[in-house]
């Protein structure tokens, strides 16, 4: 479909209407394709662990019937695969719930420094399992903003989890909350708060960065999955930040680390 083929004569107004209609259809088609891709990807992501579970059921009924050691091992794998399916379904449901609320700005006011401290503490054991420690830097005084505490908590959890997953083993994750520097060109020109999660991982090649928030986009497909990611974490982050009329900024330097910053407006 080429919008250029639309004749602008006769009457310009008709041409204008036709032009609008055609570009609407183009957008509809792009949205339809994205939906179809999403359903295909989600189905594929679910089918892989399901196929594994079905395969092991057959093995348990057949070849491993009288082998308790193999049974224990296979049940462990099946439990992991079932857990992977559960996490994927949770994330899919979470994403669609966020999309529904995306056009309603959050109503509550949240102390972001306190929220970050609570999330860091709650995530501590999970992060420690991966050998990571969190260094918290909270600006003095209360840094409050209009926000949905549950959703911003999820943003912090997803970013911290990624920092532990993809960061350097035994490395430090720096989590900070501070008022946005006024006059910094990268932020909108009004009062805001910046949440930042920085890791010491291998970093992300520049060309991947704009695509990281796409659903199921992974830099290393196999690794992302085996490490336990659903491929939806950053898509969820992006939608939550959009709902808050905020900005997500991803910076990474290969060999040094990655920093994920979320700017949120300090006032509605
Ligand atoms: P996943 O569940 O795969 O982690 P995400 O949407 O959270 O999905 O992240 C998408 C991809 O972005 C990951 O698979 C990984 O390749 C990359 N990524 C995310 N966070 C980091 C990070 N802190 N360091 C390096 N790569 C990252």
Structural class: alpha+beta
The strands making up the biggest β-sheet line up spatially as 2-4-5-7-6
Quote the distance from N terminus to C terminus.
41 Å
Q: In sequence order, what are the helices and strands, one letter per element?
A: HHEHEEHEEHHEE
Taking all Cα atoms into account, the compactness measure Rg is 23 Å
Number of helices: 6
**Small molecules (ligands, ions, cofactors) in the structure:** adenosine-5'-diphosphate
Strand content: 15-25%
Query: Main beta sheet: strand number and arrangement?
Result: 5 strands, mixed
Average pLDDT number: 89
> How many strands appear in the DSSP assignment?
7
What overall form do the CA principal axes indicate?
globular
Fraction of residues in H or I helices? 40-55%
* Poorly predicted parts: 1-12
Protein name: histidine kinase
Subcellular location: Cell membrane
GO molecular function: ATP binding; phosphoprotein phosphatase activity; phosphorelay sensor kinase activity
Main location: membrane
Outline of this structure?
The chain is of the alpha+beta class and 268 residues long. Helices cover 51% and strands 16% of the residues.
